[in-house]
């Protein structure tokens, strides 16, 4: 049973790392579940401090994942229309039948929304859409860093207790 939990946990951490760039997969959450599964095995004693701290960071990053692209839009001069357009574009982009729709969606959503807000200022709309795209990239990078840290934690803890499996 411990080997099955170890393998399932490792798969969760690796798929979570891929999910840090693919919005369809819940990257940080899935990686944290992988670490939790590791601590559920008998050879590895549960360290509630590590689990609690990594859970808090994971939850904070999941919340920030929705806030950062919208704040990027706002910081680059976007209105509330652009912020809403970014969020709607992100959701639509995930399900769009075009390649890399999750990258294009927030940009297009912010641009179209800003054009609805002020149809004469193309330059401002483009600037807000650029802020949305930069916010999305920052958010994805932060998720990737967390997922890599959780993968590193998983490997170190599993390696330390390798003789018990």
Distance between the termini: 9 Å
Order of H and E elements:
HHHHHH
Please tally the helical runs, counting DSSP H or I stretches of 4 or more residues: 6
Fraction of residues in helices? over 70%
Overall number of strands: 0
Radius of gyration: 19 Å
Shape: elongated
User: What structural class do helix, strand and pairing data support?
Assistant: mainly alpha
Count of discrete domains: 1
Please report which band the strand proportion falls in: under 5%, 5-15%, 15-25%, 25-35%, 35-45% or over 45%: under 5%
Transmembrane segments: 46-68, 88-113, 133-159
Protein name: DUF456 domain-containing protein
InterPro entries: DUF456
Keywords: Membrane, Transmembrane, Transmembrane helix
Task: Give a written overview of the molecule.
- By secondary structure, the chain is mainly alpha-helical.
- The chain contains 6 helices and no strands.
- The chain has helices at about 1-20, 25-40, 50-75, 80-95, 100-115, 120-160.
- InterPro entries: DUF456.
- Pfam families: DUF456.
- It comes from Flavobacterium caeni.
- Keywords: Membrane, Transmembrane, Transmembrane helix.
């Amino acid at each position: 049973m411990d080997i099955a939990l170890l393998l399932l946990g490792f798969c969760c951490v690796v798929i979570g790392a891929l999910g840090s760039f693919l919005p369809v997969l819940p990257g940080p959450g899935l990686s944290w579940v992988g670490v939790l599964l590791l601590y559920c095995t008998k050879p590895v004693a549960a360290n509630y401090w590590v689990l609690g701290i990594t859970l808090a960071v994971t939850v904070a990053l999941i919340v920030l994942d929705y806030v950062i692209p919208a704040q990027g839009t706002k910081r680059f001069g976007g209105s509330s229309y652009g912020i809403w357009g970014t969020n709607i574009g992100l959701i639509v982009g995930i399900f769009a039948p075009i390649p890399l729709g999750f990258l294009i969606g927030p940009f297009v959503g912010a641009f179209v929304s800003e054009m609805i807000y002020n149809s004469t200022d193309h330059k401002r709309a483009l600037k807000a859409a650029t802020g949305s795209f930069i916010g999305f990239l920052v958010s994805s990078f932060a998720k990737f860093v967390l997922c890599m840290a959780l993968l590193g934690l998983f490997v170190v803890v599993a390696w330390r207790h390798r003789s018990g499996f």
